[in-house]
């Protein structure tokens, strides 16, 4: 699969690739991903991390979330912003959080004002993706939610660290084309390797 293919074609192909993984492969990938993340100083030092709940074959962060709780870190999840269309809020997630499905069918915490965590207070964000390349460029689902929400990280030079998360099979062998609004990842983390932005 070449990056010269349309983005919609790439998305379809790599979604099929990750959905073709067996439950055993998915579970092993989650454990291996946790090992990779535990080797990162930024993860060890982070007090607040943003994760996601896996859907559509995405690499599950459940072991990572449980490890973060065990270490006393605050964990938050992306929630569709109720007033700003196309944007996300980060809402604190704990073992007793009440979840509800959003309009895409994705579970997210019910919004309570004290649980909303401002972007500038999130030290590390683990972002899902559909495909990536060696230069840590990320191809998302096409909605632009992360790009719009994370734009202040660049604009305001926030210290928030952004890592893409993917299965190894989601790697494009040659470079992906970037649009000017695409938010770069500092790293892409897979079960077998950490790719750093050049």
TrEMBL record:
Catalytic activity: (6S)-5-formyl-5,6,7,8-tetrahydrofolate + ATP = (6R)-5,10-methenyltetrahydrofolate + ADP + phosphate
GO molecular function, one term: metal ion binding
Biological processes annotated in GO: folic acid-containing compound biosynthetic process; tetrahydrofolate interconversion
Residues that hold ATP according to the record: 7-11, 138-146
Cofactor: Mg(2+)
EC number of this enzyme: 6.3.3.2
Class of the enzyme per the UniProt entry, highest EC level: ligase
Keyword list, A-Z: ATP-binding, Ligase, Magnesium, Metal-binding, Nucleotide-binding
Residue positions binding substrate: 53, 58
Alphabetized InterPro entries for the sequence: FTHF_cligase, FTHF_cligase-like_sf, NagB/RpiA_transferase-like
Membrane-crossing residue ranges in chain numbering: none
Family from the record: Belongs to the 5-formyltetrahydrofolate cyclo-ligase family.
Name this polypeptide is given: 5-formyltetrahydrofolate cyclo-ligase
Species in which this protein is naturally found: Paraglaciecola polaris LMG 21857
Upper lineage: Bacteria, Pseudomonadati, Pseudomonadota, Gammaproteobacteria, Alteromonadales
């Amino acid at each position: 699969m070449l990056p010269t293919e349309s983005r919609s074609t790439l998305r379809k192909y790599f979604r099929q690739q990750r959905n073709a993984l067996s439950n055993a492969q998915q579970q092993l990938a989650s454990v291996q991903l946790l090992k990779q993340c535990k080797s990162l100083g930024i993860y060890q030092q982070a007090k607040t991390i943003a994760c996601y709940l896996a859907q559509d074959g995405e690499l599950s962060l459940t072991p990572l979330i449980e490890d973060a709780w065990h270490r006393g870190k605050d964990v938050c999840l992306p929630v569709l912003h109720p007033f700003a269309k196309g944007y996300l809020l980060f809402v604190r997630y704990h073992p007793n959080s009440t979840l509800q499905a959003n309009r895409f069918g994705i579970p997210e915490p019910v919004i309570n004002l004290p649980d909303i965590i401002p972007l500038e207070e999130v030290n590390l964000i683990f972002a899902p993706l559909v495909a990536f390349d060696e230069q840590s460029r990320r191809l998302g689902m096409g909605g632009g939610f992360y790009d719009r929400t994370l734009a202040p990280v660049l604009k305001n030079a926030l210290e928030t660290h952004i890592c893409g998360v993917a299965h190894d099979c989601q790697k494009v062998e040659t470079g992906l084309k970037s649009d000017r609004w695409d938010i770069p990842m500092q790293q892409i983390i897979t079960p077998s390797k950490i790719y750093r932005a050049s």
